[in-house]
Fold this sequence. Notes:
The complex is a heterodimer.
Chain A: E1 8-21, E2 27-42, E3 47-51, H1 58-65, E4 73-78, E5 81-82, H2 88-95, E6 98-101, H3 115-125, H4 134-144, H5 161-173, E7 179-183, H6 191-208, E8 211-215, H7 219-225, E9 228-233, E10 236-242, H8 243-248, H9 253-261, H10 302-306, E11 322-323
Parallel strand pairs in A: 3-8, 3-9, 6-7, 7-8
Antiparallel strand pairs in A: 1-2, 1-4, 4-5, 9-10, 10-11
Helix pairs in contact in A: 3-4, 3-5, 4-5, 5-6
Chain B: E1 10-21, E2 24-36, E3 41-45, H1 52-59, E4 68-76, E5 79-80, H2 86-92, E6 97-100, H3 104-107, H4 114-126, H5 130-143, H6 149-152, H7 162-174, E7 180-184, H8 192-209, E8 212-217, H9 220-226, E9 229-234, E10 237-243, H10 244-249, H11 254-262, H12 307-310, E11 316-318, E12 321-323, H13 329-344
Parallel strand pairs in B: 3-8, 3-9, 6-7, 7-8
Antiparallel strand pairs in B: 1-2, 1-4, 4-5, 9-10, 10-12, 11-12
Helix pairs in contact in B: 4-5, 4-7, 5-7, 7-8
Amino acid sequence: MSNTSPLLDVSGLTKHFPIKGGFPIRRTVGAxxxxxxxxxxxxxxxxxxxxxxxxxxxxxxxxxxTRLLEPTAGKISYRGQDITHASRKQLAPIRxxxxxxxxxxxxxLNPRHTVGKIISGPMEINDINPEGGREKRVRELLEIVxxxxxxxxxxxxxxxxxxxxxxxxxxxxxxxPKLIVADEPVSALDVSIQAQVVNxxxxxxxxxGIAFVFIAHDLAxxxxxxxxxxxxxxxxxxxxxxxxxxxGNPRHPYTRALLSAVPEATxxxxxxxxxxxxxxxxxxxxxxxxxxxxxxxxxxxEKCASEAPPLVQVEGNKPGHLTACHYPETQETVPAPRxxxxxxxxx
Amino acid sequence: xxSTDQQPxxxxxxxxxxxSTEDGIVKAVDGLSFDLARGRTLxxxxxxxSGKSVTNLTILGLHNPDSTKVEGSIELDGEExxxxxxxxxxxxxxxxxxxxFQDALASLSPxxxxxxxxxxxxxxxxxxxxxxxxxxxIEMLRRVGIPQPDVRVDDYPHQFSGGMRQRAxxxxxxxxxxxxxxxxxxxxxxxxxxxAQIMDLLKDLQQEFGTSIIFITHDLxxxxxxxxxxxxxxxxxxxxxxxxxxxxxxxxxxxxxxxxGSMPSLDGPVDVxxxxxxxxxxxxxxxxxxxxxxxxxxxxxxxxxxxxATESPVLExxxxxxxxxxxxxxxxxxFFSDLAGSQAH
Lengths: 347, 345
């Protein structure tokens, strides 16, 4: 995959939200460093998963890629074309190729529009008239996402959460996109419905060859859906690798802690290794110096405080497996101590 | 355990909770029975609308008496709660039984400090002075792992992070050493690392105080971590009950099979589709006839004589284990091993 140019190429992507304060003149007094220097690529037809805890910048990344937010620095190239600061006009043809699926199936559909109008909306805006008319295309799309084409004239409130999410998927597919950014597409749904929507997205990805940036906090779902996975912490990618490598051989302590915290619906005789992180994610307004994870890391040393580890292929990694850590984990690393009960340490 | 001669701490029998709405009667809970022994954790699993939250609000007497019809019996330590006067319930709530809610920010008052909110419950039930209540609040915050509790006690909820708010809620619920703690999706809104912290905390506190816990969740992984016994709810009824090991290792009801098949795991196969349950949860205004799961059940046609659609299966519990399904044990074994086999590769 690496010899062809990637569909999406992101380098040094940064987004700082200014914080205004002061009176009577409001000045910028600081910045929320939501995303800070991301590098990653998405190949055609591939799904890249972005995981991390709330506030790690994964949603901001999604919005930067779709250019719903203006990047502070860095570069986004789509099919070799620099779209980092492209104008609305320049973006118009690209926007039809990059679509988004949102988390909340209730807030992301206009309650006053019929399903037909919602799904044909993107075609209307881009003045696309498919053969046989828009209505025919919408009915096709409804079929693809597993809804009854007869529901063309219904309103969103007549559908359940899972069905609404299917409408959202149909809308994203309306313009035959090359890349879909799906921001927590199933986290608002019940477990049994989640699986339906995940299956639908997987089928869409396979049948139509659409690339995905799949943003989620559920590591098991990301693993199921994405061929490559990037783990984010406080605005940075700490580890990125093929699915098998990331889940089978996590090198960053945070990845390891995150994986060990996922509760699994199995009752094992020998319980899995458990790493308990203390405290909360620090504020992105003044992130820790050096490695941002060091305040919660059980291996941190002075080097971690002074020097930010670069995202590189550390020793023992397969090609394409990048880790940003001075002291990467190995399979044999002794499990971290159980740290749960020490409130003072969390201060 | 010698629970045979001992009365269960909480005993719910044939509980029915019906709401009258403009559209008709919503049968949110329809004939639910379960027991909970002292110091045990019962996990209640179900999807939205399965009646798991309503059950627990009813136990606490937090339903609206004007629009709600409650039938059946709720016995806490030998005392009947259904129909008990509000005064009795008020004495029990926050004292003998307490609740933790999902959304900590919405459940805490933004206008009062954390310390005051924790102390309020304590003062009400013990008649302690303000100073005593404050000291107690600090002690509770320390116990739930809030750093610098003597300083943070004067903070407002917005100054706490999500995980700390949930800890503060737990501190508030436990301030009077309740014997029954009802936790309604207490970790759903939290990140996994924080969720793990909170569950460890609950387990530690339970060991320390011997509290009985009802833990409501939709996540079977959380159940595997925290519960002793599991009750699976669907459409206002219990469809399966058993110990955690029994339910997760050898689930008996097709709905439980469906739930387990819907969840991807961290080491399962990746390129096969998941096994979702088709359709969506039933409306409780017009619940399906017979077994409420039959319209979504892949095995309904295997039962002779269309019984699933006409005849409501009876939940038979022996030794705490049982299910409400018309399939015979033999069929069940066969179908489940087929399912497990198809998911293994």
